[in-house]
Amino acid sequence: MKISSLKHGLLIGFLLFYQWSMAQIPVDSLLPVRGFCIGAPQSSRVDEFVQFIEKELAPRQVNTLILRVDFNYEFKSHPELRDSVALSRREVKRMVNACQKHHIRLIPQINLLGHQSWAAKTTNLLRVYPQFDETPHVKMPEKYQWPNADGLYCKSYCPLHPEVHKVVFELVDEICDVFEADAFHAGMDEVFYIGDDKCPRCSGRDKAELFAGEVKTIRDHLAQNGRTLWIWGDRLLDGKTTGLGMWEASMNNTHRAIDLIPKDVLICDWHYERPDQTPVYFAMKGLKVMTCPWRMPKNAVLQAQDMAKFRATATKTMKDRFHGMIQTVWSDAGSFLDEYYGRKKTDESGNTASNCFRALYEEIGKTASN
Ligand SMILES: [Zn+2]
């Protein structure tokens, strides 16, 4: 009896070890992109952020850092568009060096097309160049509230204005040069104002074609310098048919653009409230896709498991399109660091970007071998 139970124990032990060893997958094969996306730090927090890159991102094998820069840089091409306090070239280079040292791909973001205002404030591009406004007849409210009669969430620039691309592409080129980037994130999420009935250039046009046209224009410009375009995925999903609604999907018919955009545009597919399995849809359309959680650790873990499962079960043709996971933080780096290091009070539910980041990378670490 004793010998047979020993044998039995050994057998179970061996099976468990076998299962564990089979579950350990090299991290690059498990998820080619292991990302982190955050607002670029203010000048005064750059040193602290560099420490965070070295002490928190690098050890977790994060290999992609998307920094939302917008106008937080001392642009030489357009000084009139700089924020009042903006990152210097030297400060950017400190972050570039830290990332290069740890083999982290650094991708800058400037919001193009949409997100040209926030609440009651018009942001720099349309404040300085109001002629680019898609909806100049929509006046900014003194006190912003949602919903409102104008359907104003954020302003957009007019993608058919003949002078807008000269200005924005000078910004894009300068920011990509200083970040030494081979990819650029153009945002392009939550574009509610597009093809407005009152725009002399866009009225009456197909909104999906307008959206896809702008994606292609930006993509083609970047391609001239060997750079790839990354965008958020929400405008390419059908909000009505899927029930995903107007924020994380499109209710103004831009979703048909999914069949019109170049296939080398990378999709950052954000879903924060539920682990929706939309990566399969993007991948079947021929697009590389990365899932982006925000502040619900439970969802981030499920999304990481889904992404790994999609890769494990996909055809050889589709596998690489399931391209990874990106933790998204919707604050600037300074506020996040205060939260992360416990210097400010956070949501008691535990649903915070810091906890989500920790949970996501714990899950990735569990499944990956080095
Ligand atoms: Zn227009």
Describe the structure in your own words.
- This protein is α/β, with parallel strands linked by helices.
- It is built from 13 helices and twelve strands.
- It has helices spanning 2-23, 27-30, 46-57, 89-101, 124-128, 164-178, 207-223, 239-242, 279-284, 297-313, 316-319, 333-340, 353-367; strands at 25-26, 33-39, 64-68, 105-112, 117-118, 121-122, 183-187, 228-232, 266-270, 289-292, 322-332, 368-369.
- The longest helix has 22 residues, at 2-23.
- The protein is globular and about 85 Å long.
- The mean pLDDT is 95.
- It binds zinc ion (ZN).
Which features would summarize this protein structure in a list?
about 375 residues; alpha/beta
What does the largest sheet look like?
Answer: 8 strands, parallel, barrel
Regions with pLDDT < 50 over 5+ consecutive residues? none
Strand order of the largest sheet: 2-3-4-7-8-9-10-11
Mean pLDDT: 95
Bound molecules: zinc ion
- Structural category is alpha/beta
Beta-strand residue fraction: 15-25%
Share of helix among residues? 25-40%
Distance between the termini: 41 Å
Helical stretch count? 13
The H/E string reads HEHEHEHEEEHHEHEHEHEHHEHHE
Total strand segments = 12
The geometry reads as: globular
Question: What's the Cα radius of gyration?
Answer: 22 Å
